[in-house]
Amino acid sequence: xxxxxxxxxxxxxxxxxxxxxxxxxxxxxxxxxxxxxxxxxxxxxxxxxxxxxxxxxxxxxxxxxxxxxxxxxxxxxxxxxxxxxxxxxxxxxxxxxxxxxxxxxxxxxxxxxxxxxxxxxxxxxxxxxxxxxxxxxxxxxxxxxxxxxxxxxxxxxxxxxxxxxxxxxxxxxxxxxxxxxxxxxxxxxxxxxxxxxxxxxxxxxxxxxxxxxxxxxxxxxxxxxxxxxxxxxxxxx
Length: 237
What we know:
Blueprint: E1 9-12, H1 19-49, H2 56-84, E2 89-91, H3 92-125, H4 127-133, H5 136-161, E3 171-172, H6 179-182, H7 191-224, H8 229-236
Parallel strand pairs: 1-3
Antiparallel strand pairs: 1-2
Helix pairs in contact: 1-2, 2-3, 3-4, 3-5, 3-7, 5-7
């Protein structure tokens, strides 16, 4: 019987092997990460404390800022750690967990952007009905649906990954763990996993992208029909 070595951790190759470049990259991405944290936290605090910003648009923007915090925090801390460490490893299940939160955050953000596009469409194309349509329960329902879709899109892909066995190469030529990077390293056939990932992402894209394109095409059409340049500028803003 062929002897197989069970892989318990992966090696993330990162962006460069040059120590000097790694130091520069660490400083650069640390600044970017800190600015991302501060900018999004400030956005959330301003929206929460300013009574003039209790509108659906800022309600969605607050959740978008929180999602940006989550998405950047899933990858950046580990990448910054690996830029300083000689041993650039991550456990198999830690890698799968990171992939779960990447898909979760990205899928939720796609749904949230669709909700924000619909909000702007309702505000500009149907201003008289806006307050009636975009009421608080409806906005909360859209946010809840976005998080639920993100979770349901990510969970099956991550659970199916636990069926894979890793016993060969363990080097990932990337700075974070993504499922497409794990599939070639599996000793078992990942065809079902690849089909599930492609199908779920395609389904999400076919639902969210047409809604975004439709909303903004109608918005641009409505704005261009405004005769005054001042009115067009305000609507575009």
